[in-house]
Amino acid sequence: MLVNSYSTRQIANFRWDPSNGVRRNKLPPGFSARGKELLQQAEILLRAVVASIRRESHRVISLTLSVGIASRSTLNGSYPRYEEFLYLNAVIDGPRSLIPFLWQTSKQQLDPLQHQASILQCLQGESDAGENGKDFHSHRILDIILDPWCASLFVHEVLGHTLEADNFLNYTKRRGKDFGDKLSEYPINVIDDPAGSCNRGGYAMDDEGTSARSVLLVAAGVLNDVLSDSVSARKLGRQSNGHGRHTGLERPILPRMGTTVLLGGHDSLDELIAGVEAGVLCIGNWGGGSQGDTFVLRPAYGRLIQQGVITNRYIRRFDLIGDKFETLSRLDGVGRDTTLFTPVFGCNKAGQDDLPVAMGAPHVRLREVGLRPF
What pLDDT, in 10s, does the model give residues 136-195? Predict the structure, then answer.
């Protein structure tokens, strides 16, 4: 049974700059009553953020706050979806260039006002990095700590895509990695659980009509399972575990992630930092990708760590790049502060873009990772 989906969106934008103040675009036809309620809350949020920017003298020169509702349904009504989303774009006036900023979230029921502290904290960090940060100019190998947002994308790219069953067959097994093999000396545990999620990466039934279930991908550092649809499951001599997904009626179904999470470890952030003699705390992200067994991540910025202490020295404009399996072997610390992220913009794979997913992780420490300027 094929279960195909479609989606519709209602979006409205607020814009602010010092010359013109707060403005809102014209609402699209048929904007719902709930959408208008969200707009009222979003305007209060934006004005509070603007007041803080003026009070703290942030170098923010413009803001665009987008709020909306997305409906994703199915031809047979098996898993109708409704979600509300919020994303904020800003432009920060750096000493050498303008710096873009993006904050985003999506939930089934959103309360914009509860995100004020998170937005202001992220803006403060970006402003400090923009004002004080130095552009990264040379390729280096350093110990790093990923904050939960950056670590979540690391898990998505390095473990999630690698353990989608088609990728597992195409390149993971060719690297000599199979069920029961150790991926990390540190006893990490990674799950993908769309069935237990009511977020953007959650669903009760995949696009083949198979009930979604939680999959333990990595157990105590050992490769335990993969994400499968019916075709890839047959190749592996298994049953589909409800991860056959696609982005439209005309698209083929592929093994895809839902809600992928690295569970918390044993270390506090202070303990992770204390174990780094010279390295970088990587904060936020501007995206990433993977091709075969190579990955790349682009943190928003980094703070240098020296002799186990975070300094006020910032670096910008660098990528993390490396071999997935070699980098996993250098993972030696996982925090206890697992955080779930529900981005507005989805996952891209094989020409099927913007698939709704969620991801989560705590702080993660990695040894000897390649940093490359861009």
Answer: 889 999 999 999 999 999 999 999 999 999 999 999 999 999 999 999 999 999 999 998
| Span 265-276, pLDDT tens digits | 999 999 999 999
Beta strands per DSSP E along 94-214: 98-107, 134-135, 140-146, 190-192
User: How many residues belong to the chain?
Assistant: 374
pTM: 0.92
Do 274 and 308 touch, CB atoms closer than 8 A?
yes
**Token digits of residue 105:** 């979230």
Q: For residue 13, which of 49, 66, 63 has the smallest C-alpha distance?
A: 66
Which DSSP symbol is given to 210? P
With residue 279 as reference, give the H or E element that holds it.
strand 278-283
First and final CA of the chain: distance in angstroms? 46
Which tokens hold the place of 254?
A: 């592929």
Q: Long-range contacts made by residues 252-255, C-beta under 8 angstroms, separation at least 24? A: 253/2, 253/207, 253/208, 253/229, 254/164, 254/166, 254/229, 254/349, 254/350, 254/352, 255/164, 255/165, 255/166, 255/167, 255/226, 255/227, 255/228, 255/229
CB atoms near residue 184 (< 10 Å): 21
